[in-house]
Amino acid sequence: MKKSRYNIYSEHLIKKFGGKVYKLPVNLPGTCPNRDGTLGFGGCIFCDEQGSGFDALPNTLTVWEQLRRNKDFFRRRFNAEKFIAYFQAFTNTYLPLEQFAANIGAAAAEEDIVGISVSTRPDCINEDYLNVLTRVRDEKNLDINIELGLQTVNYHTLRKINRGHTLAEFLDAVLRIHRRQFEICAHLILNLPWDDMQDVIENAKIISALGVRYVKLHSLYIVRGTKLGDMYERGEIRLISLEEYVRRVITFLEYLDPEIVIQRLVGKGPKNEVLFCNWDASWWKIKTELERLLEEEDTWQGKKFNYLNGCRALRRWD
Ligand code: SF4
Predict the structure, then answer these.
(1) Mutate which of 27, 28, 34 to test ligand 1's pocket (most atoms within 8 Å of Cβ)?
(2) Which residues contact 311 (CB under 8 A, 6 or more apart)?
(3) Does any domain span residue 316?
(4) pLDDT for 145-203, tens place per residue?
(5) Is residue 132 part of a domain?
């Protein structure tokens, strides 16, 4: 079989669990300290009212109902047997602790759930919530990972997008999570208007040095009514072209530790109310073009990764 030029998530899951595994999104009513006034109001400048969790069932349904409905769908459509419950929208470790524990417990009790993935902000990682996850992992023998929204390592850009945290909180969260031996997924946007290719390379190097296990890439989409949407409509930001974006993704992969697993190369945006999303191209087409160029240019994930720097001190999967 032809070797992939990057470390593909679906292939990794097959190796890890011995068969196909599907992620089931769970969407909970919640908020985030960057929206409720604790850190600020309005949130990140690109965040829409759904807390970046548009691709899920209504949050009025219980965890149990959402998992059941999604499981039925994936079973019928793909013959799926094993699943990861994916707590996606808002900041899941910002829910009251008891509510967080109950939700995680409900997912862990579902049959055929082999893992749980919890999405959150780096500044919302604390020991109480990690205790809940540790207990569930140990009692149920589940694979648990934590997805941290970082978006970029450039702390000037983090300020411009109003993240309400800098790189330091991400570093702190990674070290805390490593102590508990949960795997980490980092979420990055490679075409933020204030970032350039040096930031892209720095993203790859820092993520590699920190022993992050998974990466999820997203291109920036712009929703009407958000602060970013207003800036876009007023012509205050310049977006790079699709060709430049593709170049950034390829460069990012080249500098990334080849063993980090890529959960996603291109994201999808919500269907309605977007002012800009993926240059009006389908995410599938962009992904195909990326894979074609990797072949054509005979390059691959890790081609420029610097092993000599010993960037693997924090890796846990060796
Ligand atoms: S951290 Fe997430 S939920 Fe909070 S404002 Fe930013 S994108 Fe929205």
Answers:
(1) 34
(2) 205, 208, 209, 257, 305
(3) no
(4) 999 999 999 999 999 999 999 999 999 999 999 999 999 999 999 999 999 999 999 99
(5) yes
